[in-house]
Design brief:
This protein has a single domain, classed as 3-Layer(aba) Sandwich (hypothetical protein tt1805). The chain is 25% helix and 28% strand. The chain contains 2 helices and 5 strands; from the N terminus they run H-E-E-E-E-H-E. It has a 5-stranded mixed beta sheet with strand order 1-5-2-3-4. The relative contact order is 0.28. It comes from Microvirga subterranea. It holds the Pfam family DUF1491.
């Protein structure tokens, strides 16, 4: 099954957050068809988390996007620094920022072994 384009996925994700009453904004637009998507969750308590594409070994044939924790419970500045490092390698990445005290992100996370 073909994977959903990044621009469509991000649009649907932003809508999902809105339906759930969670504020989410697109901070950086990447490549429309296949840009990697990163999601920063600001916990609004001085901590943040970053989720990014799961390693390929966790990806199956379903076409669903799976995510993995990149950083968790760190300062928002730590997340920004990591995103800047990622941008040096992949200028086509997308960045969505979610603000939620409960840390809700609505992402499908890859199972950890």
């Amino acid at each position: 099954m073909a994977r959903l384009r990044s621009d469509f996925w991000v649009s649907a994700y932003l809508r999902r957050c809105g339906v759930e009453g969670v504020e989410a904004v697109l901070r950086r637009r990447g490549a429309a068809e296949a840009g990697a998507i990163f999601v920063k969750v600001d916990h609004l308590d001085g901590t943040a988390s970053l989720y990014g594409p799961a390693p390929q070994l966790f990806v199956d044939d379903s076409g669903e996007r799976l995510f993995a924790v990149v950083l968790q419970g760190v300062t928002p500045l730590d997340v920004e620094e990591k995103v800047q490092r990622e941008l040096r390698f992949d200028t086509d990445l997308w960045l969505v920022e979610v603000d939620d005290r409960e840390g809700r992100h609505f992402l499908d996370l890859a199972a950890e072994e």
